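# step 3/5: fold
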Amino acid sequence: MESNVAFALGLTLFAGLSTGVGSLIGLLSKKFDPKVLTVSLGFSAGVMLYVSFVEILSKARLSLSAALGEKPGAVWAVVSFFIGILLIGLIDRLIPSYENPHEMNTQDKIRNSSEEEKRKLMRMGLFSALAIAIHNFPEGLATFMSAIDNPTLGISIAVAIAIHNIPEGLAVSAPILYATKSRKKAFTLSFLSGLAEPVGALIGWFLLRSFFTATTFGVVFAAVAGIMVYISLDELLPTAEEYGEHHLAIGGLIAGMMIMAVSLLLFL
């Protein structure tokens, strides 16, 4: 497992810094096709939902059952799964909705603002960067832990989270650019907010590795599954529908599930 640490960290860094990609799209492109983002976000949700229920949660249950017995292991897997959901849900609740990048109203705020409100937009951009950094901690742990256990699985989750992070980069850079007229500042703050993902992975790993047992692995893995399900249902799908048609989002979700299912079958 230790031999996968560098690879897992690299994947987590890739996923986190894709916020910079989202920022660049907003800063450099004159035309943006929301349908592409809709399908991509739906695809990411499909990957993460399928892998959470079919692969990650089942592995967590097997690990816990081997350590604690079949029934206690199953119970702890379910409890840990919902603890993961409660953890990421609590983080969401602690961030005011106006400054939460997952409340997809950034464009309305920009369109409806006057000159005297630019200072408020700058504040919103800074708080969005902080909010994304907080959210990226558990996402980084999810990517890292998956890659530690299975590098192929880690790649799939890293790509899904990277796609998810692109609109977050837009959410940070758009209000800061409007408030300061500085592309450099907008990009830098967006890029730095993504660094929380590998930082979260490293902190989680250093805290856990000294007492890493089958039980610890099972609890953390089940919690990771819960985190990923919450991200998919609370962030990815609503954002996908915000940018485009309902059926495009669902089509992307089904495609993500299918491709994830096939890729897992290939590596049985």
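# step 4/5: annotate
Residues 34-68 form the longest helix (35 residues).
# step 5/5: archive (pending)
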